[in-house]
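Box 4.2: Ligand-aware structure prediction
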Amino acid sequence: MKKLAVFASGNGTNYEAIEQAIQNGVIEDACVALLVVDKKEAYVIERAKKYGTKVFVFNPKDYESKAAYETEIVTMLEELSVDLICLAGYMRIIGETLLNAFKKRIINIHPALLPSFKGAHGILDAFNYGVKVYGVTIHYVSSELDGGEIIRQKAFEYYGNNPNEVEEKIHEIEHVLYPKTINWLLGGFSNESFN
Ligand code: GAR
């Protein structure tokens, strides 16, 4: 069985989509071995209770450096034999410690068509710019914010004037595209599953 770690900072709808996809077989023969959360008030922690998933909550301010908390996380991930780290709304740059320990095994989902609209407000930035084609990107994580080789993208046109509608559509796409991509990376490798 393949072991995933999910890193999140907030609501956790993408985390939950991954757990659901494991339950309904979209992600085959896998489990979330650890949920890593950097904010103790994040709602994603509540969601994890439903699935009985092990959670590591930490406060970066309790550590003297990024390397210090990432070293602790790497130890945990290695003890659990984690295969793939999936960032799901984890609002923190990944440091060298994690990047070196999990080379090409850390992926991220971003709510815009990279390389446009990087950062924490991808949806609103794209809306305020006035784009007519929006989308979602899944990419390998590098030391650059929302950088790294692109794995999958999905786009849609929108000519309305309501950012909430855009956000809703983005999340709808994310919750399908992320699980499918994870399954593909874990060894499914069928392009048909993206249609
Ligand atoms: C998602 O839309 C994800 O694409 C975005 O955070 C949201 C988390 O939602 N990530 C980024 O903006 C990364 N730069 P969730 O907590 O409900 O999964």
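In the box above, the bound molecule is glycinamide ribonucleotide. The mean pLDDT is 96.
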